[in-house]
Amino acid sequence: MATAYILLNCELGSEESIIQQLKNLDGVSEVRGTFGAYDILTKIESPTVEALREIITWKIRKIGQIRSTLTLMGVEGQT
To answer: Where does the signal peptide begin and end (predicted)?
Structure first.
């Protein structure tokens, strides 16, 4: 399972609307409003990295009122 965390900056006052839109996307497993440098934290999971890229590029980044994103790809750690 591929995992990514996306930090989003959005236009002032649009946070709740964007959070609701993100919650309705396939692959989105968690969405949180945040305080600090970013407005929203989103966790997405998919069977492949390619599928993650599709979700980020064609679904998340197409949501209106998102100003910028920062994507952190999760990697499998050794235990």
So the answer is: none
